[in-house]
Design a protein that fits this description.
Helix content is 68%, strand content 2%. Helix 2 runs antiparallel to helix 4 and helix 5 packs antiparallel against helix 6. By secondary structure, it is mainly alpha-helical. It is globular, with a radius of gyration of 18 Å. It has ten helices and two strands; from the N terminus they run βααβαααααααα. A two-stranded parallel sheet has the order 1-2. The protein has one domain: Ferritin.
Length: 265
């Protein structure tokens, strides 16, 4: 039997993207075959820096240049940015599966399934970059997703609210625009990949919505008002529309939440 928490921690620590993706896929296969155990006595290591390669260089978002899609390099820079998001998403899903204990078994199954999806997304985009003449690490990137993981490491409810339901949900909003721009630029292969990712990311955000509500139920809290309070506390003024309402509703947002978000921002 595979020790779920020990192996999830090992996956999280791996620096090589290729090795991380392979290890995550192997762990997901073990879970699918029910060849794993959730040992509640496995200690939890305090959150630190997740395993990542020496490149890309991590900079503050303000130092990232705008990606113009009129050139191959501009399109590659955009693909690289999404590739970096997907690499971070692997670590985010792994950390959720590793860090928060005393949750139902399906919580861990859900998040390792997300990690496996994100690994596949990363591989699709990394391969696409290579066909464009570039590699993951060739452009600078920022570390905002992992920084939020660190800020929410002590509270599963906050993590579910602020990572999948805010940061990852932004992908539901911005990806259709990227698809439209890349279609206009004639980059139909990248469009094909982004359509796959967009469809599957709806499920990932919905998983976050599901477990956020369970965390709220455990504490006797109203999910809608709790989410909006957390949103005001952590993201005032930093979320912009337009919002992909159809995808967000499918991913577990309520009309009251979306009305409030639209009014706030």
């Amino acid at each position: 039997m595979v020790s779920f928490f020990e192996n999830t921690e090992k996956c999280l620590a791996i620096r090589s993207p290729e090795e991380k993706c392979a290890a995550v896929t192997d762990l997901w296969m073990a879970v699918q075959s029910n060849n794993f155990e959730l040992d509640p006595n496995t200690p939890v290591t305090p959150i630190g820096v997740a395993g990542h390669p020496a490149k890309p260089e991590l900079v503050i978002p303000a130092k990232l240049r705008r990606r113009r899609l009129g050139s191959e390099e501009g399109r590659a820079a955009l693909v690289h940015a999404v590739t970096h998001i997907e690499f971070n998403a692997i670590n985010l899903a792994l950390d959720a599966a590793y860090r928060f204990r005393d949750m139902p078994a399906n919580f861990y199954i859900d998040w390792i399934s997300v990690a496996a999806d994100e690994a596949r997304h990363f591989q699709l985009l990394s391969t696409r970059l290579q066909t464009m003449g570039f590699s993951y690490g060739d452009f600078p990137a920022h570390n905002g997703l992992w920084e939020m993981a660190q800020r929410t490491a002590d509270d599963c409810m906050k993590r579910m609210a602020l990572v999948p339901r805010v940061l990852e949900a932004r992908g539901l909003d911005v990806t259709p625009g990227m698809i439209e721009r890349l279609n206009s630029a004639g980059d139909h292969e990248t469009v094909r990949i982004l359509k796959i990712i967009l469809e599957e990311e709806v499920r990932h955000v919905e998983i976050g919505s599901h477990w956020f509500r369970i965390c709220c139920d455990q504490r006797g809290l109203d999910p809608e008002s709790t989410f909006l309070d957390l949103l005001k506390e952590y993201f005032t003024g930093s979320i912009r529309g337009p919002f992909n309402m159809a995808a967000r509703m499918q991913a577990g947002f309520t009309q009251r939440e979306m009305d409030a978000i639209s009014e706030l921002y």
